[in-house]
Amino acid sequence: MALIERLRAFLRERYQFGGLAELATHKTVPLHRHSVWYYWGGMTLVLIGIQLASGLLLLLYYRPSAQEAFESIRFIMTKVEFGWLIRSVHAWAANLVILCAMVHLASTFFLKAYRPPRELTWVTGVLLFFLLLGFGFTGYLLPWNTLAFFATKVGTEIAGVVPVVGPVMQMILRGGSDVGDVTLTRFFWFHIAVLPAGLLALLAVHLVMIQLQGMSKPLSVTDDRSRPFFPNFLLRDVVAWHEGGSLRADAGRDPARVVLPLDVPDAEAVSGSCVRHRGRVDRGGAHRGGRCRARAGAVAGPARPEGQGLVGGVGGRDRRSLVYPRDDRVRRMGDTARALTRLSLMASLALAPGLARAEPPSNSCVECHRQMEGEARGPAALFANDIHAQRGLSC
Question: Which of 205, 329, 355, 393 could form a disulfide with 388 if both were Cys (CB 3.0 to 4.6 A apart)?
Fold first, then answer.
């Protein structure tokens, strides 16, 4: 304690924190039956901070080019320690921040918090919401997979039908007549440079306005009851952050999907991942004991080329989304991350949330073929006689 007092005395002698200390001590929040809507602004702010932190970590490995973008995402999801967790948190928090911003904006509108003298606070809030939508649109293309490509193609076509300025907007967004490498580069720099600069500037103005003018009360509230912002309201706000944090921690139970790359090879170049077996691996005992039970003398399929991942192209109607498998080690890592998130808040707020653990993983075609790596495989001509062709599968 003596060390802390000496440190505080050292800082007081050199820096005047009187204004900040007075603001933290005397700032109050109106207390009424609509006070619950005040928490959504703080939750949005925390989610924005999580997006910035997780985005900076993803930047360490992401490569914004048409040749390397998809492979860098696959590397993050499968090779980087906790990379799957960081990317999943970034993807889930992106949805949650839009949801929280929408609720915050709607509550501000219906409670008429935009009344004078808070008109500019409302305007900056609306601009911040549109910037968050811009983050979602530009970030969706960065994995550079089929889903992102065609979603961006549709989105830029919608922008192109706007009267007068539509074609110009479409050209600026795409960087050409169609979505390509230039589009990816532009969206990347919009996502990490242009939009963050505007967001931080507007966010600072928005927060300063709220601190100067205080929080608005609805017209139906006539009393002057209030509670101190620190620590009363802040601790309740942290509880709300904890609920959002629980949702983000559960992202480890369902990581963000990584779908097919844009270059889809032919059916003969299938990497060996059992697409059609997903969801029915136990039907007919096809994977009894964790192995694909092929007929005598048959093989499990063509060998996977060296370095080729689990995401491969499949022909015809099997061009569908594939997810990376999560083995026991990865699932245990997700459980550990969720437990640490909950325990840290239990220690500070004496909360006791239940720690939900995910169900153990079931056998899958991917695990089956992974176990068979290194084993001898017969010629490709025998592929027609194995269990995959017998069941009409294209694995």
Answer: 393
Q: What is the pLDDT of residues 361-370, one digit of tens each?
A: 444 454 455 4
Would you state the structure tokens that stand for residue 165, as one six-digit string?
A: 């300025």
Phi, psi of 132 (to 5 degrees): -65, -40
Cα atoms in the Cβ-side hemisphere of radius 13 Å centred on 76: 28
Check: CB of residue 389 under 8 Å from CB of residue 267.
no
Of 232, 259, 235, nearest to 318 (Cα)?
259
Phi, psi torsion values for 373, nearest 5 degrees? -60, 140
Categorize the per-residue pLDDT at 299 as very low, low, confident or very high, splitting at 50, 70 and 90: very low
Q: What is the DSSP string of 70-125?
A: HHHHHHHHHTSTTHHHHHHHHHHHHHHHHHHHHHHHHHHHHTTTTSTT-HHHHHHH
Distance of CA 236 to the CA centre of its chain: 25
> What backbone phi and psi angles, to 5 degrees, belong to 68?
-120, -10
What is the arithmetic mean of pLDDT over 130-152?
A: 95
pTM: 0.65
32 Ramachandran zone, left/alpha/beta (phi>0; psi -120 to 50): beta
Q: Are residues 129 and 198 in contact, defined by beta-carbon separation less than 8 angstroms? A: no
Spatial neighbors of 250 by CB under 8 A, at least 6 apart, are 338, 356
DSSP letter at 145? B
The pLDDT assigned to 362 comes to: 40
| Helix/strand/coil for 255 | coil
Contacts of 142 (CB under 8 A, 6+ apart): 62, 64, 69, 73, 148, 184, 187, 188, 191
Give dist(CA 297, CA 302) in Å, integer.
14
Say which residue the tokens 């860098």 belong to: 72
CA distance 82 to 157: 36
**The pair of three-digit structure tokens given for residue 354, joined into one six-digit string:** 């239940």
